[in-house]
Design goal:
single chain, six-stranded antiparallel beta sheet, Immunoglobulin-like, elongated, alpha+beta
Length: about 375
């Protein structure tokens, strides 16, 4: 019995804890750890409170059962192999993550060791470039690109020329639409310029009479009364067809008179080169050589950069540049076919340098070690 505040007595009883309330038509008991055994006074207010607690526990129990039944139904609808696959995938992901962590640390250590070994196995290069114009002070070659090559650019140009050789002179002469006598003379004299100023000195009287092109040019240069007493032929082309014997004798007589005149007047050959200008093959030969040289000028820098380029380096405002990480060996500091200029002087460089492991090579580029130098017109 419990005495109330007004002195009346109220009935008490030891109640079962709500933590193990057995609800009707339920499959299990609901465990609520926050509810403990205790004496409950069965007055009107306490009965309401107790009834509300039982109601809340019942609602919570029904909600949990519905969720569990839904999950059980969902799992029952999933095939067994999917469940196994997902479990195996989870294990593989965990193992891969652990391996990545361990390999990352190993790679970091290996990378540091490799970097240190690479730095010790390579060398560096520092160079400066300065040009001294005529009657002036040396000037730095500023913001100019230099190429570090594994082969001399001079040799690279020769390699490019070998891949695109100069046309053979004899083949070129054989392709000309000249007489056989003139082609033979050009090969024997090793000349292609028939309009050279000293052409009259190269041609002998026998050459003039023996080469049809020379004879025609000699006749034209002395025709029209320009040369007094110059022999004239007494035959025509009509005689060649109608009177071949007569034509042959008259021609022999004419050539004999020309030979006599030539020996007596050697100055009569002056100006013969002007008459040969129209058939001069020198222009065609020069055009072939120019086209080939142009191809080589384009091919050599491309060959150097594609096959023999180790590094590029741009000079600063003081004309200095540096390159690191070069494997030991022989290199060339080159400007390729580009010219650096200062004042009236234009230069190129192709300077050899040897790189040692763990060391820095230093080179000074100046007028003294240029490969080519030309002075521009003021």
């Amino acid at each position: 019995m419990i005495r109330q505040a007004d002195g009346s007595k109220a009935r008490t009883e030891r109640l079962r804890p709500l933590a193990s309330i057995h609800l009707p038509n339920r499959r299990r008991r609901v465990s609520c750890s926050f509810l403990h055994r205790g004496a409950i006074c069965y007055d009107f207010g306490m009965r309401k409170t107790n009834w509300l607690g039982n109601r809340l526990v019942s609602v919570d129990d029904r909600w949990q059962d519905s969720v569990q039944e839904g999950l059980a139904g969902l799992l029952a609808s999933i095939p067994l192999w999917v469940v196994v696959f997902l479990g195996a995938a989870a294990l593989l992901v965990s193992a891969a993550a652990a391996q990545t962590d361990s390999s990352g640390a190993g790679q970091a250590t290996t990378g540091a060791a490799t970097g240190a070994a690479t730095g010790a196995a390579t060398g560096a290069l520092e160079f400066s470039a300065r040009i001294t114009p005529t009657a002036a002070r040396a000037e730095p070659v500023r913001q100019f690109t230099f190429y570090i090559l594994t082969k001399s650019y001079t040799e690279i140009v020769k390699e490019a020329e070998e891949k695109d050789p100069v046309p053979a002179r004899d083949e070129f002469i054989d392709g000309l639409k000249f007489s056989a006598e003139l082609r033979a003379w050009m090969k024997a004299k090793d000349t292609l310029d028939l309009s050279a100023p000293d052409m009259d000195k190269r041609i002998s009287p026998e050459d003039i009479l023996g080469v049809p092109e020379f004879l025609l040019a000699y006749q034209r240069s002395n025709s029209g009364g320009v040369t007094s007493g110059f022999p004239k032929p007494k035959y025509t082309e009509l005689d060649r067809a109608q009177h071949p014997e007569k034509f042959k004798k008259l021609r022999e007589d004419y050539l004999a008179a020309l030979m006599k005149f030539l020996r007596k007047h050697p100055e009569s050959t002056t100006g013969i080169e002007l008459e040969l200008e129209g058939i001069n093959p020198q222009r065609k030969w020069a055009a072939l050589q120019s086209a080939r040289d142009k191809r080589v000028r384009h091919a050599a820098p491309e060959l150097a950069q594609l096959k023999f380029l180790a590094r590029r380096a741009d000079t600063d405002l003081e004309g200095r540049a540096s390159v690191s990480g070069l494997p030991p060996g022989d290199y060339w500091i080159s400007t390729l076919n580009l010219e650096a200029n200062a004042g009236d002087l234009h230069v190129r460089w192709d300077v050899p340098v040897k790189i040692e492991a763990g060391e820095t090579a230093r080179v000074e580029l100046s007028n003294l070690n240029t490969t080519e130098a030309s002075r521009a017109n003021p």
